[in-house]
Amino acid sequence: MTTGPVLAVDVGGTKLAAAVVDQAGQVLRSSSRPTPAADGAAVWSTLVALLDDVLAGEPVAGVGIGCGGPMAWPAGVVSPLNLPGWRDFPLRARLAERFPGLPVRLHNDAIALVAAEHWRGAARGYDNALAIIVATGVGGGLVQAGQVVDGATGNAGHVGHVVVEPAGPDCGCGGRGCLEAVARGPALAAWALEQGWQPSGDATAAGLAVDARSGDQCAGAAFDRAGSALGLAIASVAATCDLEVVVVGGGLSGSWDLLAPPLERTLRRHARLPFTRTLPVVPAALGSAAFLVGAAALVLRGDAYWHGDG
Amino acid sequence: MTTGPVLAVDVGGTKLAAAVVDQAGQVLRSSSRPTPAADGAAVWSTLVALLDDVLAGEPVAGVGIGCGGPMAWPAGVVSPLNLPGWRDFPLRARLAERFPGLPVRLHNDAIALVAAEHWRGAARGYDNALAIIVATGVGGGLVQAGQVVDGATGNAGHVGHVVVEPAGPDCGCGGRGCLEAVARGPALAAWALEQGWQPSGDATAAGLAVDARSGDQCAGAAFDRAGSALGLAIASVAATCDLEVVVVGGGLSGSWDLLAPPLERTLRRHARLPFTRTLPVVPAALGSAAFLVGAAALVLRGDAYWHGDG
């Protein structure tokens, strides 16, 4: 049983974030730094300085880390796709050396998301939940029977690689027609440009949302396509996992007004089993704090969210 | 802890089967009867006579039942699709009345299949497995972290309703493009007939396999289509669940020589993540006994396969 606040860490390709989180899941203080490009040693030294800054000399009862995949789990040897400076970097072991005697637990950031939303957010009170993150990539995490599902290698929940268009676009994973290949932010923008979108501002998913809300048809069609792909993938996962709620987070979930209608339309067309047809799909509740709260949950609520060693 | 043999029951639309199964999962004796058509009372009286016959007056330590879905679980109130005489039939309660004091446990037959193959068959030794049954319908069951996954309502594992052709054929569930709509036996035969198949014998999936092996192109194309659909669905479930093995059973798995090549080709094209790209897919090992062995496992290995009451 862990008592007292813990240190939570979120390692991403653009940002390193850290917080002290109390036993109720409240962020007491937090800080972040841009992730240094390319140089792995600089990433580590920046991370160490960030943690010292957030801790401010106060003791903590443990350390929880969410990190982009892939990784060897539970060893916590990470090779984040968007952080090329770290390949097979033993992040968990390095942090364990800095915090001797404390539990140090590391999992995929999408697992941190589902843990946070299940513990303190939009999936609270449900025993069977999926959280999806739609951003530069598309990831996810599962809770079944009240427990995070790790799978054989800690990679369960990779719903970004559910196939939604068998003959669809190539995916960064090497496959084809994956949800991620269709619905990741950069893919939306690229598809809209191909269709003739003339951006009024940035040629990004955020700019696309602005133009879609102004009635641009190409921009609207791009969100229809992404929402529909999400609906298809959710229908398939719902049949497989018999869920009670799906939570959607990540940058693109800020365009929920544009994503939700096509998502709902497609999901209801395909999910017709008695146990899938009324499945609620809701936006994430915790915003950008979710990854830190979930990282903390690996330590504070290890009974539900941590099945590794230590 | 259950000691001594148990009574295992498999309730299907065409056949009622029962067996006495020992603690090692061996079938000591078994019997079956055709399922009476339409008349629910006759189904019950036939089942009771079958059980008396198999028991032959010997005591058992519990009763395990696999039954076609849908059902209310764990209540065991069943409405098997292919058994129209039973709608909201309280099968578990009725059997509990006949076997007072004993554990009586009922689950979906596809859950019985995965339990059997995990306990005694092709998924033995793996903690994360999917079993698929391809027959008149397409169903499945999941084991994760060594435990059967029930989901919110006991219906997890319905991989027959993973969407493999978003604009594909209507499915019996009311949805569209489900694996079951493409790969169930009758759908294969119907599709081949539409393509111009001229059956040399029966116009069934079994007849189709005979003709495919003789070089009939329409028949071969039908198996290619079904195998490819299975490969797509497995790729999606593998990304979601991070599996170690997939076991394929049911009548159509008897045509493994025809299904496996297109299944493998499609799976390897789409499943390219480090944790999915080498996932083995193998035929079931236990044959038709699997459903009885799995029903017994609900009682004999309740630690892994039963999370309901009683």
Structural class of chain A: alpha/beta
Largest sheet of chain A, described in full?
5 strands, mixed
The rounded distance between the terminal residues' Cα atoms of chain A is: 12 Å
Strand order of the largest sheet of chain A: 3-2-1-4-7
Shape of chain A: globular
From the alpha carbons, calculate the radius of gyration of chain A and give it in angstroms: 19 Å
Biggest interface, chains and residue tallies: A-B, 53 and 53 residues
Give the percentage of residues in beta strands of chain A: 15-25%
What is the helix content of chain A?
25-40%
CATH architecture of the largest domain in chain A: 2-Layer Sandwich
| Total of domains of chain A | 2
Give your account of this protein's structure.
The structure is a homodimer of 310-residue chains. The first copy, chain A, has 310 residues and is an alpha/beta fold. Chain A has 2 domains: 6-112 and 289-305, Nucleotidyltransferase, domain 5 (2-Layer Sandwich); 125-285, Nucleotidyltransferase, domain 5. Chain A contains 10 helices and 12 strands. Chain A has helices at residues 40-55, 91-98, 109-120, 179-183, 185-194, 205-213, 217-241, 256-270, 290-300, 302-305, and strands spanning 6-11, 15-21, 27-34, 63-67, 71-72, 77-78, 104-108, 129-134, 138-144, 147-148, 245-249, 281-283. A 5-stranded mixed beta sheet of chain A has the order 3-2-1-4-7, sandwiched between helices. A 5-stranded mixed beta sheet of chain A has the order 10-9-8-11-12. In chain A, β1 (6-11) and β2 (15-21) form a beta hairpin. Chain A is globular. The first copy, chain A, starts with 5 loop residues before the first strand and ends in a 5-residue tail after the last helix. The interface between A and B is large, with 53 and 53 residues.
